[in-house]
Amino acid sequence: MKSGEINSLFKNLSKVIKNPRSDLKYKNKFTLLVSVVLSAQCTDVNVNNVTKNIYPKYNKPEHFVKLGRKKIEKLIKSIGLFRNKAKSVYLLSKQLIEKHNGQVPKNFDDLYALPGVGKKTASVVLNEGFGLPTIAVDTHVFRVSNRTGLAYGKNPDKVQENLYKVVPKKYLKKAGHTLLLHGRYTCKARTPSCKTCVIIKYCKYNNKELR
User: Fold this and answer.
1) What confidence category does residue 123 fall into, taking pLDDT thresholds of 50, 70 and 90?
2) Which of 130, 158, 186 is the last residue of a domain?
3) Is 57 considered catalytic here?
4) Which residue among 138, 165, 174, 188 is the active-site one?
5) Do both 62 and 82 map to the same domain?
6) Closest-CA residue to 93 (of 27, 40, 25, 33)
7) DSSP per position, 73-135
8) Which of the residues 23, 91, 156, 182 could staple to 137 if both were Cys, CB 3.0 to 4.6 A apart?
9) Which of 149, 155, 151 lies closest to 163, judged by CA?
10) Helix (H, G, I), strand (E, B) or coil at 6
11) Which structural domain range is residue 156 located in?
């Protein structure tokens, strides 16, 4: 995709997605981190339904360390992969206390080193929590990037690498959530809403739904 098309793509998207943010509900940077960890292979709605009863009482690393893995499991048992996620939340809480004075670090390497935190999670926390220009590539961003031709890649890491190369600087901070929301609500996996898509003229997808 040419640079002029890329600028127009983000300009058009920004007109309909004015304030792109995560749908996850959180109280502070730590609960944001926990919610993003819990959201792996799980909808944001499901995570919010569970955490709305947790965060009013438990919202610091010390709280989750004191709870312990078994009690955390009980609190999040309706979330998929809850045992592994409870382990991650417990261990990352311990590591935050031991290495970061209970604070969520503001750099990628320290976040990525936390138990249960992958590249996507670290990028989301830096962008949503600290306002840094990072792009997290989830299934929606991956799909939109490949369908439109904005940033081709066979895996999320390659798509992320290519997005950083082509996204204009002025759109970089909001690019990830903009593409995510476009993919979630318009450029859907099975039935994309191509007729109402504001960037269809730039899209390289061969199987457009135009009927």
Assistant:
1) very high
2) 130
3) no
4) 138
5) yes
6) 33
7) HHHTTTSTTHHHHHHHHHHHHHHHHHHHTT---SSHHHHHTSTT--HHHHHHIIIIIH-----
8) 156
9) 151
10) helix
11) 3-20+134-202
For the stretch 74-115, pLDDT in tens is 999 999 899 999 999 999 999 999 999 999 999 999 999 999
- In this predicted structure, what is the pLDDT of residue 211? 63
CATH number at residue 86: 1.10.340.30
Query: Which of 107, 130, 153 is a domain's end point?
Result: 130
pLDDT for 19 equals: 87
Q: Are residues 151 and 118 in the same domain?
A: no
Give the mean model confidence (pLDDT) for residues 24-38. 97
Measured CA to CA, the distance from residue 112 to residue 132 in angstroms comes to 15
| Closest residue by Cα to residue 14 from 157, 206, 168 | 168
pLDDT at 210 over 80: no
Q: What angle do CA 125, 127, 128 make, to 5 degrees?
A: 65
The answer to pTM > 0.70 is yes
Q: Look up 106 and say whether it is catalytic.
A: no
Contact by Cβ (8 Å): 127, 134: yes
Annotated catalytic residue, options 120, 154, 165, 201: 120
Instruction: Compute, in degrees rounded to 10, the torsion defined by CA atoms 135, 138, 139, 145.
Output: 10
Look up tokens 């926390």; give the residue. Answer: 125
The encoded tokens of residue 83 equal 């045992």
